[in-house]
Amino acid sequence: MTQTVTDSPAKALTLYLAAPRGFCAGVDRAIKIVEMAIEKWGAPVFVRHEIVHNKFVVDDLRAKGAVFVEELEECPDDRPVIFSAHGVPKSVPAEASRREMVFVDATCPLVSKVHIEAQRHAEAGLQMIMIGHEGHPETVGTMGQLPDGEVLLVETEADVAQVVVRDPERLAFVTQTTLSVDDTKGIVAALNKRFPAIVGPHKEDICYATTNRQEAVKAIAPDCDALLVVGAPNSSNSKRLVEVARKNGCSYAQLVQRATDIDWRALGEIGSVGITAGASAPEVLIEEVIAAFRARFEVTVELVETAQENVEFKVPRVLRQPA
């Protein structure tokens, strides 16, 4: 007797797609700068540090002719070099100028704003405290705007209690642009309590894109059995999204670089999944993740939009086409 086997129907699954997500204006600008530099000067074009923290993006630019290095000393004098979106210490462009190199600064304008703030406070005689992550290239770049000892780093509220300052009446603070909004509020409150005279930024340093992506995650996290953040393990803003999801009602929140990283066994009997992406993750990787779910489930996608973004930053004049 012949037995007929029929496929069981796919399990229904709701995907909550966060918006805004993915590329921010600073990342988009930085990638365009590398592409335009290759078009203008030909390959190879050197890039100090990953232009943005995303392997897919870096590999794509490498295939087009970008060479990624960690230090300026790895670059030849006769080829252009681009500084990453995270910013660099003042010593880096100074050395490039000394070597008479062609260089283009792809620092995000919102990071540059923090650099300018730090310089302005220093000129007013204030010692700086920076809220940031030790070793992150943005933190290294911002602290490197001023002489050694002029910028003190704190990462937590506990650090605030231990920091030793020159004069508690002559202080200002800045922050890394990709921090947790809620965690940073606690650190700022601790700074204000210990140093009542401390001067803060005219406008919050955490950038619009970081804030918007965290707010979108807060909106979907309570309704999700699991939440996936598409992003790189060295991406500060992506890792913060995982933390925000866990703190706002979704106990299973994971960072994945692309669909092949999804742990399907860990997801188990789920009925809803949130999807977002860090500010350096391209939309093609989000589409890849959605397609992977469609291959396994009967998927309904619900877009949850908490803000609209229309920010655009111009590329440096040296790369613009004549009008």
From TrEMBL:
Keywords: 4Fe-4S, Iron, Iron-sulfur, Isoprene biosynthesis, Metal-binding, Oxidoreductase. Dimethylallyl diphosphate binds at H53, H86, H136, S235, S236, N237, S280. This is 4-hydroxy-3-methylbut-2-enyl diphosphate reductase. Binds 1 [4Fe-4S] cluster per subunit. Pfam families: LYTB. Isopentenyl diphosphate binds at H53, H86, H136, S235, S236, N237, S280. [4Fe-4S] cluster binds at C24, C108, C207. GO terms for biological process: dimethylallyl diphosphate biosynthetic process; isopentenyl diphosphate biosynthetic process, methylerythritol 4-phosphate pathway; terpenoid biosynthetic process. It comes from Pelagimonas varians. One of its GO terms (molecular function) is 4 iron, 4 sulfur cluster binding.
